[in-house]
Amino acid sequence: MDMDRAEKLKKYGTRYSHSVKVGTGRRSANVGMFAAFAAAVIVCAAGLLFFVFRYHKEESAFVFVTKAELASCMSFLSEDALPKEWEEDAQSYVTQSQIKDLIQNIGLAGIVSAAGGNDRLKREEVMDRYEQILDYLDLEGAVSKKTVLVLSVDGKSCRTQDGMLELVCPSQGLTNFHTYGMYIMDDKIVGIKAESEKTVALREVQVRAASGNKVQAVYDRQQYEITCKDKEGFGKLQEAQEASCTLCIKGGAVTKIKQMEKAVSDQKEENAAEKVTAEKEKPSDTVKVLLLNQGAIHYDRIYLSGDGKWTVKKNGKKQRKKSRMSFRLKS
Fold this sequence. Notes:
5-stranded mixed beta barrel; 6 helices; 35% helix; alpha+beta; single chain
C-alpha cells in the first residue's frame, strides 16, 4: 500500500532536512578549510614578495648607483658639480642623461663620453666615467682607489683590514669578509666600484678552530667567526688548538692559513709576566738613603737603631757592631 502524501512528506522531508543539515555542516567545514588555505597562501605570497623585494632592492643597490653616492664621489671638487634638485631625489638611481649633464657641468663634454637617455646606468659604467673625471680633475690626488676587506659594518662605520673608515656613501650590498674596490678620501669611503677578486691578508691574527668549518679569529681586538675553505690549514689549526697566523680572505671565507705559529697560552704568558715583575721588585743588597734635616744634609747628631746584628762603616771601615741597641754618631 502506497504511503499517502502526508507520510511521504514526513519521511522524505525529514531525510531531506537531515541531509541539508549535514551538507551545510560539510559546506561550512569546506569553507573554513578554504579560508585557512587562502590565508596560508596569502601569508606565503607576502613573505615571498617581501623576500623578492628585499633581495631585488639589495641587488639593485649594488648594481646601480644612487645620486647620493655619486654626490659623495664628486665631493673632492670645491664647487657644486651636481644640480641642487638631486638632493630631493637622492636615493634614485643615476641615468644616462644625468651623467651627461654632470659631465657638461664640470666642463668635460666631448672629453668623457656620455649618451643621453632615461635608462639607468650600471655601477661599472658610472664608475668608469668617474675614474676618467678623476684623471682630469683630481690633480692633487685627493681620492684614492683601494681594495678593502669589509670585516663589519655598523651604521656609518666600516671596519676594514686597516681599521675604521667612515661610510659616506650608502652601504647596502656590502657583505662581511668580502673585498671591494673602493674610493677613499680622508679616511672616508666616498664610493664603491665593484666587488673585487683580490685577496686581502690579515696578519698576526689569533685564531682557533671552531665547530664545523669555521675559525674564530681575534684581529685588532675584535672577535670574528669566519668560514674556512683551507682544509689543510684548518686541520693544522685543530691540532694546535690556538695559533697566531696570517689569514687570506676573499669572497666571505678564509682561502688560506699561512705563517702559523703555536700561540703561548695565556697562563704561560701570565707566569712569565709575573716572573719579570718579581725580578724587578727583588730588593737590592745595597741601599743608599739620603737623610735631610729640613732640606739640609748636615746633622749635629745621628741616632740609629736596629732589631738584629748590623755593622756601621765610615769611609769603608767598620765602626761598630751592635744588636738591638741604639747609639749615637757624631757627624
